[in-house]
Structures are given as C-alpha cells and as structure tokens.
C-alpha cells in the first residue's frame, strides 16, 4: 500500500519533445511540425509592413477574373498558372534586351548582387509566405522586373516599336490585357527592386532614351490613370510600394483639397 500511495503522489511524467531526446513524434505529426517550422522560417517578422496581399476569398468569388491576371504573371503568386505561360517567351526576350542596354563591365555581378541583397526585403513585402527557394524567387524577380522596365521603355520611345520580338506587334487587345494585369494587387513586384535594376541603365549617357528615374518612366506608362495630373517629382519614390499603390496617389485628391477633420465631424 505504501508503494502504491507513493506512486499516486509522484509527479506525473510529462513528455517535452524539446528536452526529451528519447521521444519520437508519430510520423504524420512530425511532418506537420516540420512543415509548420518551414513556414515560420520563410515568413517575415511580424514587424514587417506587408504591401502585397491575396484578395480575400469572399471578394474573389464575386468575380474571379477581375482579380486574376489574364495574360501575364508578375511576381510569385501566379507564376505557375498554365494559362499565363505563353508570355514567358516575351519575358525572356525583353530580359535579353534589357541586358544588352547595360554598358557596365561588371554587369552580371551587379545584377546578381542587387537581387541577392534584396531577396529578404522582397519576401517581406508579401503577406503570404513565399515557398520558392532563393534561386527560383530571384529568377522570378529578375525576369519579371526587367520585363517591366523594357516594356515601359518601348512605350516611352517609338524607336523600339516594330521589333520582331515586340509585344506591340501582337493584336492590340494583348496590350490592353497586359496593362490591366499590371495593376492587379496579386500581380505585383515591390517598386524598389524594379527601381534598383533600372538604375543600372546608362541614364546619364542617354537622357534622350531613358527618363531620369523609373518613377518618371512609370508615370509616363500609367499617364492615362493620372486623374489628378500630379507630377512625378511631387512624389517620393521610396514611399511607392508598387503600381497599385501608385494608383492611390493618382486618384487621391491633393492634401490642400481635403476638408479638415473638424469639418467632417
């Protein structure tokens, strides 16, 4: 009886997988924990300010096509969509043309350095953890960002129209779809990374060909959306998160036109 009483009063043994090396989780649970840890490692710090989100399911269900790219994927969210793969050949052609524009001797090293140094910050812009490994994500960033730059430059100057590999040679509806796809929330790259790559171009040597900044080039491309007629030098490019965010500047009235909070109350 004494032994039985002692056993009843003994503290209950608990299994702490963090401290007990002898313990083994069931296989299915171990896989769940491993997956959860990988997501946690890929997810940015909670202090990160996200700027690129998935559209809520309830909103998407109202009209899926409105929130889903129709011809081209930009960034990681829709890059695996089969219906968008036909544009990949144009992306690679425009990437090649962008590379030809860079006159710096150490071009490849500079490109690689920019993408590598910016990867963590790029991941931190997306509210959803990006599952791609570093090499895959860096390739997506590089190809998509340089496509955008080249596409905008061809819209800037007519001397680039009429190339055999030009999208402008395709039916006009394709251009219209691309413009629409570039302003979808799920189809964005952070503005800063495109801007960094743009600065590799010989901007000082060829001012007639290249706008002084990527912000100016972007303003030109989305001019039809600039309902407030604001100038590119009225905005700090460091505050622009992506193209959808830029549209916010285009549509919001200037501060001097806003009524004081006291009046609204």
Tell me what the structure shows:
The protein is mostly helical and 265 residues long. It has one domain (41-260). The chain is 47% helix and 0% strand. The protein contains twelve helices and no strands. The chain has helices at residues 2-9, 27-42, 57-60, 64-67, 88-101, 107-123, 134-156, 172-181, 191-198, 214-221, 243-251, 261-264. Helix 6 (107-123) packs across helix 7 (134-156). The longest helix is centred in the middle third of the chain and has 23 residues, at 134-156. The radius of gyration is 25 Å and the shape is globular. The N and C termini lie far apart (78 Å). The model is unreliable at 10-20 (pLDDT under 50).
How are the SSEs placed, and which strands pair?
Layout: H1 2-9, H2 27-42, H3 57-60, H4 64-67, H5 88-101, H6 107-123, H7 134-156, H8 172-181, H9 191-198, H10 214-221, H11 243-251, H12 261-264
Helix pairs in contact: 5-7, 6-7, 7-9, 7-10
